[in-house]
Amino acid sequence: MILVHLQLFLTHLFFLLMNKIVFIKNLVAILIIFNSCQDRVDLIVHNANVYTLDEKTGKATSFVVDNGKFIAVGGEELINDYQAKKVLDLKNLPVYPGFIDSHCHFLKLGLSLQQVDLRGTLSFKEVINRVQDYAKSNDLDAILGRGWDQNDWEDKSLPNKSELDSLYPDIPVALRRIDGHALLVNQKALDLAGINDATKVEGGTIIKKNGKLTGVLIDSPNSLVTAILPKPSIREKTMALKDAAKIAFENGLTTVSVAGIDKDDIYLIDSLQKTGELNIRIYAMISNSKENMDHFLSKGPIRTDKLNVRSFKVYADGALGSRGAALKSPYSDLKSHKGEFITPKDSLEKLAYMLATTPFQMNTHAIGDDANRTILQAYNKALVFSNDPRWRIEHAQIVDTSDIALFNRKIIPSVQPTHATSDMYWAEDRIGSNRLEGAYAYNKLLKMSGRISLGTDFPVEEVSPLLTFFAAVARQDKYLYPEGGYLSKNKLSRIDALAGMTKWGAYANFEEFQKGSIEVGKVADFVILDRDIMSVKESNILKTRIVATLLDGNIVYSNRIN
Fold it and tell me: Which DSSP string corresponds to 248-301?
């Protein structure tokens, strides 16, 4: 009997053990299946206030990044659907697509850090003092500087070279105005460039006073001086590009559209990006010199993950601040002068017809109302058979109200809102009150074109998309002037301003399927701010700070997140 009970006990124990083993095996199997369903991704961002700029998704609270791209965008359920190497709980901080600067001078920003900085000078005497301080601490073959603006001085007349001649008779001095279109040089530079009283250059002006050279050159004559100045080395350019990228990332920029760059510098950028030394994304507008055009028209566009080369930058005229903008009627403060076309009118039209037969976009600098009308007419003639050319007018600054209707879905206004708030102190003196009706008319241009792209034109203006945003929506400068906004009828809404810095900037670069919104399949470029610029009080927008900038889901700038 005992033997029977022992046998039953052992049999029962056997089945218990077998069931437990099966249970454990099943549990392990379930866990394996469960884990296999959870993707091990690079990054999950959650508990955030996400402005996706994707019309289908709208706002979100979470997204998932893997291999540099957004793979899911939605609500907090995503935190349970994926396993990640890194999880960011943003505690409701706002997130936006990476900011795009649609018009800047990226290499020039970096190179300007290697020159004497003349921004913010309040007199010509202060310019001279900065030049002297710089010259004392550097061993120089030439003195180069940038940033003076006579409109900020008590004496608003253009400067004269006489003091530079006295201080530096033996080395060339070249000091570029803040807009990049005027140059103050000394006599040594003029001599080396072969410029004298009889020199004439089409597409610009050599300023004289009482029949004598003042040393101020406007637009095309600048190239004569540039040709004799020391060229930056590859090492100096490399340093400049890296410095500019650092500044851009610190300001939330993940893509910059470079408005005019030569082929050698494009290939330098490409090589640095391929080695990982330069990470920022660049849309390069090729300077339309004969050498550049011959090369790229033969080669065709270039497209990599970080570089897009498929447009030419053309100059119709100069800048308003240095009276180089081409106006229909004379300047209000200089009745004998209407400005200059850098590229002759007939050449602009021929160029438009030629480029319309190529895959390249035409992006034309046009400031004055005559320049804008000329380009608008040329574009509309050349693009009659083009369905989606996306040709751009860079600046579109002063447009006759009768010409605004020439903008349409084929022509994108690429504007810089801080130009309006910088120029407002003197623009009416230049062009009079009547022409202001079509000046900096961003809302009118948006209505005609359906899209508008926003930039800064740095280093002409500050490298700050937040200042761009504020200037667009408030039409005030950083001192909150003027109350109510400058030419306030042309304020942009906050959503339009944000679109102009993100998805419309991408569209203007033919990159809307790669970037510009937080959307599945696009590159994971985004920026985190410390307050929501879409909802805070308007004046508090300027208090906003960048928390972090991420490119391909990787942190390229942070002041909080590790």
Answer: HHHTTEEEEEEEEE-HHHHHHHHHHHHTTS--SEEEEEEE--HHHHHHHHHH--
In tens, the pLDDT along 90-123 reads 999 999 999 999 999 999 999 999 999 999 999 9
CA 151 vs CA 219, 290, 424: distances in Å: 18, 35, 11
Q: How many residues are there in the chain?
A: 562
**pLDDT over 80 at 387, yes or no:** yes
CB 85 within 8 A of CB 42: yes
Residues whose CB falls within 8 Å of the CB of residue 293, separated by 6 or more in sequence, listed in order: 286, 312
Report how far residue 241's alpha carbon sits from residue 236's, in angstroms, rounded to the nearest whole number: 9
Q: How far apart are CA 301 and CA 360, in angstroms?
A: 7
What's the CATH fold of domain 115-226? Diaminopimelate Epimerase; Chain A, domain 1 (3.10.310)
Structure tokens at 99: 């900011």
Q: What is the pLDDT of residue 39?
A: 56
Buried b (16+ CB within 10 A) or exposed e, 335-351: eeebbbbbbebeebbeb
Compute the average pLDDT of residues 188-217: 93
Distance CA 430, CA 331 (A): 6
Cα–Cα distance, 202 to 212 (Å, whole number): 19
Structure tokens at 227: 């040709």
Please state, in angstroms and rounded to a whole number, the distance separating the CA atoms of residues 143 and 184: 11
CA separation for the pair 423, 397 (Å, rounded): 11
Pairwise CA distance, residues 191 & 177, whole Å: 21
- Cα within 13 Å of Cα(440), Cβ side: 27
Assign domain 38-98+522-562 to its CATH superfamily.
Answer: Urease, subunit C, domain 1 (2.30.40.10)
Domain ranges of the chain: 38-98+522-562, 99-105+232-515, 115-226
Which residues have C-beta within 8 Å of that of residue 506, sequence separation ≥ 6? 100, 255, 512, 514, 515, 516, 517
CATH class of 99-105+232-515: alpha beta
- Residue 548: alpha-carbon gap to chain centroid: 18
Phi (first) and psi of residue 555, to 5 degrees: -70, 120
Domains 38-98+522-562 and 99-105+232-515 share a fold: no
264-289 pLDDT tens trace: 999 999 999 999 999 999 999 999 99
Got the DSSP string for 523-549? B--EEEESS-TTTS-GGGGGG--EEEE
